[in-house]
Amino acid sequence: MGVRFIKAAVVYFLIGLGVGIYMSSFQDLRFGSLHAHINLVGWVSMALFGVIYRFFPKASSHKLATIHFWLYNIGLPVFLFSLFMLLRSGSVKWEWGIIPSAFLIILAVICFLINVFTNVSESQESSISSTKNTSV
Question: What's the predicted TM-score (pTM) here?
């Protein structure tokens, strides 16, 4: 699951760069919150999820990781598109896309939280450290 999150994160990184370049080139700063959400909720958060799942395979192989991945990756694009349309049009009707998609993202993060507290332990961490020390 970690690799999937990392690959998706890189896509959001590219999108975030594109939005940032657009905003800078055209001095169109109305998309600042969209840019921040793409980079933080897309690129940074997903990269962190991926790294954590790579370091803790027990959490990565748990059913909660799959649920987390799909809820997050269904909710986030809908959220970002709805936010873009809200900022572009100024119409609050796009909040009907933002609210349910934000709820999906929150549910995904709750799955992640439960998974981490259930399946990540210090013994896994120490085995990672010993593996790194012996391979060098």
Answer: 0.86
